[in-house]
Design a protein that fits this description.
Elements lengths: L3 H29 L15 E5 L16 E4 L11 E4 L5 E3 L4 E9 L3 E7 L4 E8 L1 E2 L6 E2 L4 E4 L11 E7 L2 E3 L5 E2 L4 E2 L3 E7 L2 E6 L1
Antiparallel strand pairs: 1-15, 2-3, 3-11, 4-10, 5-6, 5-9, 6-7, 7-11, 8-10, 11-12, 13-14, 15-16
Bound molecules: zinc ion.
The site of zinc ion has 5 residues, from loops.
Length: 204
């Protein structure tokens, strides 16, 4: 009987090892799929979400594209334009606006190479038309981290960053929180109210 122990141990060990390898394979397979990492709904237990940008310290935010010029605003002549188009030149560094987790990094119709970042506050930012994405899904980013290089992939005619800000999936004008002329965060308090399935976003 005593002699059997090593054999049983060996069998258990090899089963555990096999388990490790098969779970590794599954993770690899998932990574290949263009899925979006699930994030918590900020309206899960409340109808009103507030983000106080007034209280943010300088280290807690970063303008997404240094010295950029706003070449096309949110909405405006293109009502379906869900972002702010920021332009400098090809291959310039695109930076995370706030601390967060990458929920998508890959190619998407219209967007080209795009990065989605989910922030603690329930805010989401998206950076599209990149020449190359430099982060992957699940990566934790700090404000100012380089996440991509400026390009014109997807539905773009010139190199620029299509920058989106969203809350609860609802896109809003990033100009409400960023001064795109001064490349600064505005000292505002944002309130998003969910009523009858629509989200109303205001700043004060
Ligand atoms: Zn755009």
């Amino acid at each position: 009987m005593k002699k059997r122990f090593p054999i049983i141990l060996l069998a258990v060990a090899s089963l555990l090892l096999a388990g490790c390898f098969s779970s590794k394979k599954a993770t690899k397979g998932q990574r290949g799929q263009a899925t979006i990492l699930a994030t918590e709904d900020p309206f899960k237990s409340t109808d009103e979400v507030t983000i106080n940008f007034k209280k943010m310290k300088e280290k807690e935010w970063n303008y997404p594209l240094e010295d950029a010029k706003l070449i096309s605003p949110f909405g405006g002549k293109r009502p379906n334009h869900k972002g702010s188009d920021l332009k400098t030149k090809a291959k310039d560094k695109v930076r995370a606006a706030f601390k967060g987790v990458v929920t998508f990094s890959g190619e998407m119709s219209g967007y080209g190479n795009v990065v989605f970042i989910s922030h603690e506050t329930g805010l989401e930012t998206r950076y599209a038309h990149n020449l190359k994405n430099l982060v992957k899904k699940g990566d934790k980013v700090k404000p100012g981290d380089v996440i991509a290089l400026e390009g014109k992939t997807g539905n773009a005619t010139t190199e620029h960053v299509h920058f989106e800000t969203r809350i609860g999936g609802q896109a809003f004008d990033s100009e409400l929180i960023f001064n795109h002329k001064k490349h600064e965060l505005r000292e505002v308090k944002l309130t998003a109210t969910k009523k009858n399935g629509t989200i109303d976003i205001k700043v004060k």
